[in-house]
Amino acid sequence: MAEERILEQRKEKVEKLKELGYEPYAYRYEVNAKAGELLQRFGKVKSEEEREKEELPKDELSLAGRIMSMRIMGKAAFFHIQDESGRIQCYIRRDTVGADFYNKVFKKLIDIGDIVGVRGTLFRTRTGELTLEVKELIPLTKSLRPLPEKWHGLKDTEKRYRQRYLDLIVNPEVRDIFRTRTKVIKKIREFLDSRGFIEVETPILQPIASGAAARPFITHYNALDIDVYLRIAPELYLKRLLVGGFERVYELGKNFRNEGISTRHNPEFTMVEWYMAYADYNDLMEMTEELFEFLLDEIFGKGVREIEYQGTKISFERPFRRISYLGELSKKTGLTEEELLHDEEKVLAKAKELGIEKAEELSHFKRVQELFEALVEPELIQPTFVIDFPKAISPLAKEKRGNPELVERFELFIFGREIANAYTELNNPKEQEERFKQQLEEKAKGDEEAMEYDADFITALEYGMPPTAGEGIGIDRLVMLFTDKDSIREVLLFPQLRPEKRCGEEICEVEPEKKEE
RNA sequence: GGGCCCGUAGCUCAGCUGGUAGAGCAACGGACUUUUAAUCCGUAGGUCGGAGGUUCGAAUCCUCCCGGGCUCACCA
């Protein structure tokens, strides 16, 4: 293999560097400048007049980074080094660094991909590119494997995800996605902190996985000899904190759901959930609008209220549209709200008409939800709050004032996707107990995702949880929206992939075939 | 899990109406002191994802398997 040969050649170069007294894996290097900052400060191309007048700083700069390209032209050479901030060209001449170093070290032992330190001064080439004239070059880390191609980068999606570090080295726009991700998370914290919320950490290993409708991952805790679950949501723990007297809490972290992987689902994903005492879902809608305004200001620039996602303009002008769950569904189905709530036959007929799979097996309100997902959600392109959901599919939300069949709940949809989910929280222990029991019945009927009964949570509510509103936002999908990405994998540094089978033939023969479930 | 598509050199890709593999970049040797997808001359590099099958002959056709992408289902 060509790669094997390159590996061998480079390992030899490591030895030769050592022989010549260089450390191929150095310890430290004093850096006083960043490529990106220099480029930003001194611009890239200038008119001739400007260039004549231009005075670049004469002080010696030292930078460190990875060599990304190289053009050797006899007794001088150009190369680009890339640090975290960007890529700057360097110029090295035999007569400046010495013939020995230039011929024996630079030309023979330094490769594209190596990490080096360079010291020198800035100048501008004939074509106007800002360039560092190298007075000294120090090898810092030898790279043994060849980098992907300089022009086309790395395109193979599988390789990009499995070896994300290569993707990050070679595709600068990928680094930007993750910078944005970090910023989104940071700014959400800032927003909540500034409003008096405290960030808390609740268990990821839970004896009962509740708080959402999803299948959990199971693991075993040896010391207690019990099975525990990776949390599917932190909700019930956060509410216990409100019982305990914290009035504004939030948690930003991972949830785990043992379900399919797709462009919109990763088994571990990041959520922020916050709970605010003495508030209801109306307050949260306003707060959500404010949060979006804040994020847009911080990420896209002050006052920006429109972004483009997958070729569609999305406007975040307040107030966001508000529609009622049943009202909208009534418009789309032609059934009245009364029929949607109570006429099982008509709803079933409609579900069948739309070709909803296994419609017969679903409970009435699951069918209604199916209708909603099929008919309403795809049309919610601009930010829209859907409000007042049926009680039966919202076991943790409080009854709507004036309508006991609905709950005070909203979901925020953008581009047909659910971004946020919020309720006026149910804090009546007796009713919560009944709702849990209903979930148990659903479970008994075969709904694997019905919510688990959490008796300790009921006990907590019996001590009294203040009136509270709570909301959760899926961070990954939010980042997708802000980075214009259509796959969740593009916004996860290391998305879940099936492990590669990388075994020798012998090992594979010994390994038993995995049985299909 | 179902459907459709993809897997050829380290990377990006050609070759696919069957006749045992090509290019550019990267690598190696050489020329070149302001190049920038540097250029020029030369060299090396592949069990064509894996296993079977059809055939005189398979990267190419068929089957199964592995991995990936999109999509549907479940969900956030």
Explain what this protein looks like in three dimensions.
With 517 residues, the protein is α+β, with helices and mostly antiparallel strands. 37% of the residues lie in helices and 25% in strands. The protein contains 18 helices and 19 strands. It has helices at 2-19, 35-42, 48-53, 94-97, 99-109, 157-162, 164-170, 172-194, 235-243, 281-300, 325-333, 337-342, 344-353, 364-375, 429-444, 455-463, 475-483, 505-510; strands at residues 61-73, 76-83, 86-93, 115-124, 130-141, 198-199, 205-206, 218-221, 226-230, 248-256, 268-277, 306-309, 312-315, 321-324, 384-390, 399-400, 403-414, 417-424, 468-474. Strands 6, 10, 11, 14, 15, 16, 17, 18 and 19 form a 9-stranded mixed sheet that branches. A 5-stranded mixed β-barrel has the order 1-2-3-5-4. β4 and β5 form a beta hairpin. α9 packs parallel to α16. The protein is elongated and about 90 Å long. It binds one RNA strand of 76 nucleotides through α1, β1, β2, β3 and α6.
Structural class: alpha+beta
Profile the largest sheet.
9 strands, mixed
- Rounded to the nearest angstrom, the radius of gyration is 30 Å
Mean pLDDT: 91
Globular, elongated, flat, extended or rod-shaped: what is the shape? elongated
How much helical structure, as a percent, in the residues?
25-40%
Tell me what portion of residues adopts beta-strand conformation.
Answer: 25-35%
Oligomer: single chain
| Count of runs of 4 or more consecutive helical residues | 18
Number of strands: 19
- Low-pLDDT runs: 502-517
What distance separates the N and C termini? 39 Å
